[in-house]
Amino acid sequence: MAMSIAYDEFMIFSKGEWSLDNYQICISYTDDMDYMSIAFLPDPAYEINGIPFEVASRGMYKNGRGVEYIYSLMDFSLVKKILMR
């Protein structure tokens, strides 16, 4: 359920402009299973000698921005939203 809520949040955040094909999705839980973290991490647009590299063009990155959502598993409420880049 939290994954579906996170997907909907991501689509609103990205305005449907960033394809999930260009993202890694990382899921983790707290030890007590009270909270769940779902992070959408964009793939780097370029690599130079194996090092990920990207410079924003007019404030936008080629594959979009990263975002992490933290949900309470008691009621599936959004506890925190962390923006990346």
Describe this structure in words.
By secondary structure, the protein is an alpha+beta fold. It has one domain (2-84). It is 15% helix and 41% strand. It has one helix and six strands, in the order H-E-E-E-E-E-E. It has one helix at residues 2-14; strands spanning 23-29, 35-42, 46-48, 51-53, 66-72, 78-84. Strands 1-2-5-6 form a four-stranded antiparallel β-sheet, with helices on one face. A hairpin with a 5-residue loop joins strand 5 and strand 6. The longest helix is centred in the first third of the chain and has 13 residues, at 2-14. The chain is elongated and about 45 Å long.
In short:
This protein has 85 residues and is α+β, with helices and mostly antiparallel strands. The chain has one domain. Helix content is 15%, strand content 41%.
What is the terminal-to-terminal distance?
A: 27 Å
Radius of gyration: 14 Å
What integer is the average pLDDT?
A: 88
Count of alpha/pi helices: 1
- Spell the H/E element sequence: HEEEEEE
Can you lay out the helices and strands and say which pair or pack?
Layout: H1 2-14, E1 23-29, E2 35-42, E3 46-48, E4 51-53, E5 66-72, E6 78-84
Antiparallel strand pairs: 1-2, 2-5, 3-4, 5-6
Key terms for this structure?
single chain; 85 residues; alpha+beta; 6 strands
